[in-house]
Write a structure and sequence with these properties.
Blueprint (H helix, E strand, L loop, with lengths): L3 E6 L1 H8 L6 E5 L15 H14 L6 H18 L4 E7 L2 H16 L4 E7 L16 H7 L4 E2 L2 H16 L2 H8 L9 H10 L10 H11 L5 H11 L8 H13 L5 E4 L18 E4 L6
Parallel strand pairs: 1-2, 1-3, 3-4
Antiparallel strand pairs: 4-5, 6-7
Helix pairs in contact: 2-3, 4-6, 4-8, 6-7, 7-8, 9-10, 9-11
Length: 293
Amino acid sequence: MKNTLNITSGDCAGKSLAKAGLPGEVFVWHDILYDGPRRPGWPDDDTLRARALFIERSTAGGLKAGPVLETLNKQYRLLAEAAPGRHIVLWFDACLFDQAMLAHILACLKLKGAAKTELLCVDSFPGINPFHGLSQLEPQQLFSLYGDRRPVTASQVNFAAAVDEAFATNDPALLSGLSRLAEAPLPRVPAAAARWLQEKPDPATGIGKLERLALEAIRAGHATPPDIFKAVSKADSPPQFWGDTTLWAKINALADRNPPLVRIVGTKPRLPQWESMADLKRFKITAMPENHA
């Protein structure tokens, strides 16, 4: 079992899995597979460079393209080396972020002739409500789930390739078709596709659901980033696919609109979208008058 490779998303979940006493190695996959430029299936060098630049832009330079490209190349090399002979266990949540990543990894494993792949897709855990994902679980709780893993079926792999195409191309028709499925080989995909469609700009307001929830929280008087995060998390439906980096990007986008919908006052002109020494409690976000918009 030392030949096992456990793949998950999210550094918090990865750290807990590493402490859980699982057989083999734990590897955290890093990318935003539901957004940005890419093509379905295994990426070429141009695709990876484009994704690295996209991630740098989407984090406002918080993550630099050079290190991101190194990370992307490393993880695809690991997957290519592991696929033919290693026992691979995929640990993913039911959220949009994880479902797009799961579909992409399964599509890539198919192309590389994966020998043995098992899946744990976790959408609940006793005593934890609301349940958003694996990052909420302690190492011993994660270990208790290991026996629930199931072999990935051929129908799941084939379906994953179609899902990967929908997210890679961001085709509204494909995503809409996925969202309407009553049953699916990967049963959490329809809800994930529906959630991504909700992020598309509304024709009337030009903003998506997460931006709208952030704006509503700010208009309700939540002024600091931590308070806004709590309010938006409470208002959104689980499972939560976004973290602080994504939410700060949405708030920054509201401030960058013409005319702006919010004003940010703090130690920097915009909220930091990755690790930063800036004290988030020293930022104050206020809504512009509605007739200003």
